[in-house]
Design goal:
six-stranded antiparallel beta sheet, single chain, binds adenosine-5'-diphosphate
Length: 666
């Protein structure tokens, strides 16, 4: 703390305590002594004050009279006494000249005052040293400013250390650089072992793979007189890699050359590593998700094939074609069918969710009349509603009929989900209202709403509604469900650029709504309903040519037809075989999956259709008329076969007169 320096002034130049001087010189001396802007004190060689001026009293807070009886050590900070004393003794002994030191006085009444004191020796006229003279300047303010600067520098250094943020300045004209201590730290350099920071010290740390990028970015920033901001790697001597972000700005001379640059260098290794780890985690999560979707898709396919066989045979038994059933067997059969259908439904939902999740669902967007799609969905849930005594009501749209842009099959699936929920979670004898209207917050949308009078949904659980496998706490109740339906519904609606939502009052009911984008075209006048032909089959024998390569379907249909003595079935695996069998068989009906591109896209198929049309042979689309979901449904070899519907259609085709296309005439 205490600094002592050699004073260049000599003792001889100082005023002396001259007992023998005349009155004039004494009063002159007194005036100078008293009015001096610095504190002055005389003391004997033991350090006892003999005489002090007013300024010295001001600095120490003591009066001249009080100081008279005091020793310098009594008012000096204990830490500074020894140095002062030692230097004083050397001075007295003639072993050193005058000295200057920074020291602290203890002010009267408490507090410390920093002073710069120069001590010299006063000699008597005989030339013998006999007093010490101290000239004292109050430096408290300077010292506290220095201390404040020091403290703020320490704080800055500390902040830079914590933030791993360093700073630099460059004077390009002198190539002088100033680095903050943290920059040395980041670069792994010891500032004590270096003359001065240089650009090379920095560049030699840049990772070899980033050297070119750094050079190019820097050259660009200078050429365009722009700020510099770049994150890159450093390769440390121990082989480790650090990431830093450097931001700099420069001032430029008229010649376009940089004059001065200032900037920051931040060690962002931790953040970068976290980012890299996060990206890796995201990649592997996505991979795992894809693997999960693939697994689910495969599994549900594997599960559906045997399940379809179970359901198919159950249906076959139900038709009575395989022989009569006892009432109890019929009951068992109902349970088998109900269980199988539930399972099939669940598998279908899981597969759907997996497909949507992995982005493998293809939508066919077209302009649709929503009322027609609702109309097509209603018959599928009428039985469910009737069983609970629930009335289904359609509130007609208030505006002119409009078309929406949607995928028909998927829209029907959405409506069926909402309608079956509205029935499932309703009270016996309740109602379900289906309504249309403009979307509340978007003029380009139509809102279809399904309102029920059911159990309602607690407000605090509304947010979970559309999450997969969330059943909102009703898991333990008797109402069957999986919690997937609404998750699929939302994903499908969003894939069609629509929105879905719900308002609900606990115990009173819920209204689910779907907003779908309006189509640009206008609805055509509704076509007249197709009259159903109430025909019966002629007593004749009918030959059916079935083109199918799915063995499960082939086996099932063959067993369905076997007991029917008015039908014979011949199965071939391809359209080409069908063409060659056509002459010898002369079938009344061709049954083929027209929605299956593999079958329908071939040249042989085109030829078969031509021949069928020319010879008046009816063609029935197996996909559209026997497989669940109809012709527009996504196809898989394990689609469920709807035997009653297929038989109904076969009968219809065989009985109906045909138009030129081979289709039954309207
Ligand atoms: P699931 O009906 O198979 O459980 P959903 O995804 O269709 O699955 O529905 C999720 C949950 O939302 C249901 O379990 C039920 O708690 C609640 N929910 C859906 N629709 C209604 C409704 N109309 N009224 C009351 N609660 C409903």
């Amino acid at each position: 703390m205490v600094k002592v320096t050699q004073d260049s002034r000599t003792a001889a130049a100082l005023p002396v305590d001259n007992q023998d001087s005349g009155e004039d010189s004494e009063s002159l001396f007194r005036a100078i002594f008293e009015q001096a802007a610095v504190g002055i004190c005389y003391s004997d060689f033991a350090g006892n004050f003999i005489r002090v001026n007013q300024r010295f009293c001001d600095i120490t807070g003591y009066s001249a009279a009080e100081l008279q009886g005091l020793n310098f050590a009594e008012i000096t900070h204990p830490d500074d006494v020894e140095v002062d004393e030692r230097q004083g003794n050397k001075l007295i002994a003639g072993r050193r000249g005058p000295y200057t030191m920074e020291k602290r006085y203890l002010r009267k009444g408490g507090g410390i005052v920093w002073v710069r004191m120069t001590v010299t020796l006063a000699r008597s006229q005989s030339g013998a040293p006999h007093r010490l003279i101290g000239v004292v300047e109050d430096t408290t303010e300077t010292i506290s400013a220095q201390q404040a600067l020091h403290a703020s520098e320490t704080r800055l250094r500390e902040a830079q250390r914590i933030a791993h943020l360093a700073s630099y300045q460059i004077d390009h004209r002198t190539d002088q650089r100033n680095w903050s201590p943290e920059l040395f730290e980041i670069l792994g350099l010891d500032p004590g072992a270096l003359d001065a920071p240089t650009y090379d010290l920095f560049t030699q740390r840049i990772h070899p793979e980033d050297q070119e990028l750094v050079a190019r970015t820097l050259a660009n920033a200078i050429a365009r007189q722009q700020n510099y901001d770049l994150a890159h790697r450093l390769l440390m001597p121990d082989g480790s890699v650090k990431w830093i972000e450097v931001r700099g700005r420069s001032s430029f001379g008229a010649d376009g050359k940089p004059l001065r640059s200032v900037g920051t260098v931040q060690d962002i290794t931790a953040a970068k590593q976290a980012e890299i780890a996060l990206r890796a985690a995201k990649d592997s999560a996505e991979k795992a998700n894809r693997a999960k979707s693939d697994f689910l898709a495969n599994m549900s396919h594997e599960l559906r094939t045997p399940l379809n066989a179970i359901l198919g045979y159950a249906q076959l038994l139900e038709t009575g074609l395989a022989g009569p059933l006892s009432p109890q067997q019929s009951e068992y059969l109902k349970d088998i069918k109900a269980g199988g259908e539930h399972l099939l439904h669940l598998i279908k939902d899981i597969l759907d969710l997996a497909k949507i999740d992995s982005g493998r669902i293809g939508l066919k967007l077209e302009d649709l009349d929503p009322a027609r799609v609702v109309g097509a969905a209603l018959p599928l849930i009428e039985r469910l509603a009737a069983a609970k005594g629930i009335s289904l009501r359609i509130i007609p749209p208030s505006q002119d009929r409009v078309l929406v842009r949607a995928d028909e099959v998927r829209l029907r699936q959405i409506l069926l989900n909402l309608l079956s929920n509205a029935i499932k979670y309703n009270r016996p004898g309740g109602s379900v209202d289906i309504g249309y209207g403009p979307a509340i917050d978007d003029a380009g949308y139509l809102r279809i709403s399904v309102a029920d009078t059911g159990i309602g949904i607690p407000n605090d659980r509304l947010s979970e509604l559309f999450m997969p496998f969330s059943r909102l706490g009703i898991e333990n109740q008797a109402i069957e469900g999986t919690g997937i339906g609404l998750a699929i519904t939302r994903q499908l609606v969003e894939l069609m650029a629509g929105k879905v939502g719900c308002e609900s009052k606990l115990g009173e009911g819920s209204t689910f709504w779907v907003d779908l984008p309006l189509a640009r075209t206008v609805a055509p006048a509704q076509a007249a309903a197709e009259p159903l032909s109430a025909a019966s089959i002629a007593a004749a024998h009918h030959q059916i040519l079935f083109i199918e390569n799915n063995p499960a379907h082939v086996r099932l249909i063959e067993r369905v037809v076997a007991p029917l003595n008015w039908l014979s079935l011949t199965t071939v695996h391809s359209a080409a075989l069908a063409v060659s069998a056509l002459d010898s068989l002369a079938p009344a009906l061709i049954l083929a999956d027209l929605g299956d591109d593999e079958q329908a896209g071939t040249e042989a198929h085109r030829r078969l259709m031509e021949l069928a049309a020319a010879r008046g042979i009816a063609v029935l689309d197996f996909g559209a008329n026997a497989l669940a979901g109809g012709s527009a449904a996504p196809r898989g070899p394990a689609e469920q076969v709807d035997i009653p519907r297929l038989l109904r259609e076969i009968v219809r085709r065989l009985a109906a007169p045909r138009d030129d296309d081979g289709d039954p005439a309207a």
